[in-house]
Amino acid sequence: MKLTDDEQAMLDGKEGLAKQKAMELLVKYGEALGAERLVDTNNICGGVVGATPFVRKFEAKAGSFDAVFSEFQLDSREVVEVPKVKAFTCSLIQGMDPAHWQMQGVEPGAYELNMRHEWFCTRIGIQLMNTCTPYLLGNVPVKGEHCAWMESSAVVYCNSVFGARTNTEGHESTGAAMLTGKIPYWGYHLAENRLGTHLVDVEFDAKSVMDWGLLGYYVGEIVQERIPVLNGVRQVPNLSRLKHCGAAAASSGGVEMYHIVGITPEAHSMEEAFGKKKPVATLKFGKAERKEAYDNLNSSAKDTNVDLVVLGCPHYSIEQLWEACKLIEGNRVHSNTNLWIFTPRAIKDIADRNGYTEIITNAGATLMTDTCPALGQVSPKGVKVAVTDSAKQAHYLPAIMGLQVWFGSQEECIQAAITGRWRGELK
Ligand code: F3S
User: Fold this and answer.
1) Measured between alpha carbons, how far is 332 from 345 in angstroms, rounded to an integer?
2) Which residues' Cβ are closer than 6 Å to ligand 1?
3) Model-level pTM?
4) pLDDT digits over 296-345, tens only?
């Protein structure tokens, strides 16, 4: 791999041991991927490995997060003192909400570790966003900007909606990138790897967030990790719809980028979306395909008595909270169920000031931050049946938490929370 002078200097240890180890890791990683060089990045969404039971045991023995970072993110047995990050770095979702950890069934030891983890992150200069939707909090990369993002729903949004460039990175590569401001130049960083592969004729007029989730889920399952080009979309989808579409496609498949002809920034036309390539296959999304995706997402559930309703995957925007509050206000969550809504901490601050948190709390529901059931594996005790408006949670919760899960619209989910019964259907 060809290195620039500043990269070589870091590799030679001229900026200290931690950056040297980080460069060694990036060079090994880049060479394994066939990258010819590194590229500058000043936009990392990753963080420090957090409050898993394994890390907890390790930290207890090793005695510091410097040791955790060295072992798990710099691949170094030798403990190095981690310096302040060089690149702008936002933390991703964590294992618990520090304000509701007991309700989430988290043990005190894990909570204490989480707080030490937060302290360490701020010590090295990581922005404590603790969300999979950093773009809701002002991290909005511009077209062509090289990023190193980690979480799948964030990655697909970054590539597709912003036209910024990232691969799905891991803890190790984002850890090294935040210290050096470098990431291997391969995959989605290269223009030629961003062209569409599959043409999708969108025949069903997707309007709602739920429809966009179904569209993403159906297409992701077929194209897997390739790049679908959606053609025929009549109404411009807003942030919530694209957020749900990408998250769903990244769950049923491994979609890291999609185009929507006439809408997303690298698909002003079909020619731009595909370049000189021809689609390897053409598929359609009509009524039958929508129903197929809906049936698949609802295949795990039988019992219509609902224990838990989960909203906010990916984390809810303030617009979605506003919509939810209009449906919740003046109602009461059924005594046999729980309604948990997830949003970034900074959005909750706005919700507090707007009176939304009060509306949610008065209804007996809870507005949570920093985590989600699928990633944090948090839930109230004894939950068997959950309901969600997120195709991503509906995809993962049966496998990760062993739950029966119903998928539907935000309105159906909130009705389920109020009545304690699932009555959703595809309309
Ligand atoms: Fe975000 Fe958790 Fe969903 S990380 S995309 S809220 S599974």
Assistant:
1) 24
2) 93, 132, 151, 153, 247, 313-315, 342, 372, 374-375, 392-393
3) 0.97
4) 999 999 999 999 999 999 999 999 999 999 999 999 999 999 999 999 99
